[in-house]
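Supplementary material to the annual report.
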Amino acid sequence: MTRRVVVTGLGVVAPGGNGTKAFWELLTSGRTATRPISLFDAEGFRSRIAAECDFDPVDAGLGPAEVARMDRYVQFAAVAADEAWRRAEVDVEDPWRLGVCMGSAVGGTTLLELDYVATSHAGADWLVDERLASPFLHRALSPAALAGEVADRVGARGPVRTVSTGCTAGLDAVGHAARLIEEDRADVVVTGASESPISPIAVACFDAIRATSARNDDPAHAARPFDRDRDGFVIGEGAAVLVLEEWEHAHRRGAVVHAEVAGFATRSNAYHMTGLKPDGVEMAEAVRRAMEQARLGPSDVDYINAHGSGTRQNDRHETDAFRRVFGERAYEVPVSSIKSMIGHSLGAIGSIELAACVLALTNGVVPPTANLDTPDPECDLDYVPHTARERDLRAVLSVGSGFGGFQSAVVLTRVGRS
Amino acid sequence: MNAVVTGLGVIAPSGIGVDEFWPAVRDGHVALGPLGRIEPNPYPVVVAGEVSGFEPDAWIDPRITVQTDRFTHFALAAAAMALRDADLDPATVPPFGFGVVTASYSGGVEFGQREIERLWKNGPEHVGPYQSIAWFYAACTGQISIGNGLRGPSGVLVADEAGGLDAFATAGGELSRGAKAMLVGGAEAPFCPYAVCCQLGLGLLSPGEDPTTAYLPFTTHANGFTPGEGGAMLVVEDEESARARGADARAVVAGHCATYTGTQRFDRSAEGLLRAAEGALAEAGVDAADVDAVFLDAMAGQDADAAEAEAVRRLFGERADRVPVTAPKTGYGRCYAGAAVLDVAAAVLAIEHGAVPPTPGVRDCRFDFDLVTGAARAADIRTVLVLSRGLHGGNSALVLRHP
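Predicted assembly:
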């Protein structure tokens, strides 16, 4: 018998406001949270803009020991997990049936860089001095620390792991979490993803391959998915956490059910670590398999949350994928990219986008694509420019592409209150 | 899970390729030595398990070698070996039927240190274009997929050592959902100064200076583990697909379970390991009474070892002192995520050869279980249990069975 998986809790830390409420207000307003980088002095970098979180860990409820121990991306996740867990109101009967599956692409890169600077005397010494390292540095090397911190907060004793498939990690973590429940390895899984990559090394990485926008004089309009005048993505940060629960388990306790995780699939393009082919064959395959699991046909999907990173390659690649799967129907389904407003937070964004999808389903509103003034002629779908749209949504699709060639798709469907 | 192992590719301090690795492991050869990749070595970790004689260009397109870290060199080479060993040409597998799952702990950290040094010494414009794809944890899965044309479902897990076992469960899940073949495994190359600096903070590394006594789990001398580099990739196929193409099933990946008992609370891991083992055996449809050998995690801390011994004792009850248990990794070091994968490879070889390899260097085991020491022990092995603990608190168990 198939075990079904539903979402019963949601928490978000995102640019433009912390908490689910502020997040949804930003997305439906069409405002953007992209701005000049303030987290470090970006003088001398090609791209000097980002979507940053205005996040104070103490205001957000973390204690001094937690603040000291946790890297910024772990702090985001802890706060998002607290919100999701509180809202889910789960009473855990058996902690061995409670799992955690978190995603991150670059993990503890912020602390790794800070301590590298300290231990190498700002790059002078190859043989770094370990006596100058923070006592928590070892937690930064492995993003397993992310899942561990979340597990400790909720008291999980079941499967606990981090998924790190680059920029699809946020979708894949939720997909893997759903499978832990489907495969009867857990009844409840706290899942999501977090990233805080706005640090010199990560920004320099994307400078080196010219993947990010250099619209430094106009940061509010720099993230322009599907727009003719786009010039790359704007790096972002943040976290989203979802509480997933087996359907019967949720209904038995009378939980408020926000959505069902109805399908997930991932495929690889086996083409290039960073480049995308003009065709979206592999993404289309992932979408088909996710829809197949959800038992949905092309006419059943009411909204597509695009990867929409705002690189020329991506926007054309996924537009092709949508045309392949949905045919003529592709022109009728609203497609939007919230990266236009909150940037691209690498491994976190997939989960943040799924949080947006849950809110879209429950509120009956499609968030817009900001800054879409003049569509790229090659991108000819309905990308919901500028303004959110009310719409009755029953099934939504979210897709992602990641370095390494990963293409992932998750289908969420609406379910009634139990 | 309907998953069978059909190919092995191994890169370990004990040997490159199964033909070198198995005799060294079977005979209890100690391949530990001075940490030579950092010269001079100013750090309080003197002994390490290093892979010697590895020539990436023998396995990898030189253009890719310069774009990738040593951990990815290992993974790519091990994947090539595994495909050859399985006699499987990816082009013969349906287009979306072949995927990759790797586990990682430290990523491409040597490559990362070089690039971050350029940034801080010379400025942001000196960071090269490959940093973005060489450092991150997904580098191995991505490169293996691209290098071999694998367009199926892929994944990357980070659960430290335990992730190496979790990768097999993830791959098994994909096979049961329609994939035909998966490359599964992971590798580590954690010996650049900054990676060592990070690991030292764990407080779990052995400070021992003598390669023959530095890593002695389950003894009163246990004082931390010796880190190693290397790993393995295995070809795991859907049982029916393997049979249809006439491939030899070397072992069945029969069951898996993972639990969590708190970051660096290894003193609490006994129950977690026990429940993981019981869950994996249940999925495999066997009992503890069916287990013929156990590959241990062997953290080599007093509390951690005691917890693992307790888990074994509770799992087997009265039979605890009669089930052979072993930790071959004392011969080549604990290779983080690669350690668990190497244990899986060794377990497959043990099943094939009918021999439980020993725990090199260990003589005076302080626990009342049957730790195999000295020489390999001949045994008809039908069912093997592999245990692993992650540094951040995961406990995983994998059951492999004779086909």
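Chain A is about 35% helix and 20% strand.
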